[in-house]
UniProtKB/TrEMBL annotation:
Keywords: Competence, Membrane, Transmembrane, Transmembrane helix. The chain crosses the membrane at residues 13-36. It is found in: Cell surface. The lineage of its organism: Bacteria, Bacillati, Bacillota, Bacilli, Bacillales. One of its GO terms (cellular component) is cell surface. This is Competence protein ComGE. NCBIfam families: T4P_ComGE. It comes from Saccharococcus thermophilus. GO terms for biological process: establishment of competence for transformation.
Amino acid sequence: MCRKCSGFTLVEAVFALALLLVVTTALLPMFTQIMLERKNIDLKEKAQQLLSVALHEEQMKPETTVVDGRTTFVLHSYYEENDMWKVCVRWNDYAGRSLERCGYGKR
């Protein structure tokens, strides 16, 4: 064998690959969680847009359903005391949580 050879030995290469595998295995669940939360943020923004449009709409039914891809948004609207108009939007996010946002307007 060559005593002054430069390069990796088989043990060093296997160790490096094993280390890479451990790091990848540790980071993959966090990466998928981050991607899921990004999608949930997009759903939250869509719900806020629907809420904004519903608050400015003159004639709105007491309950309206909006389907956007795999997500169903349900808008509830009703009057509260002091002539306040309340609109709430409900949806289920990609993690299976049920979320709601509400807004108020004067009519």
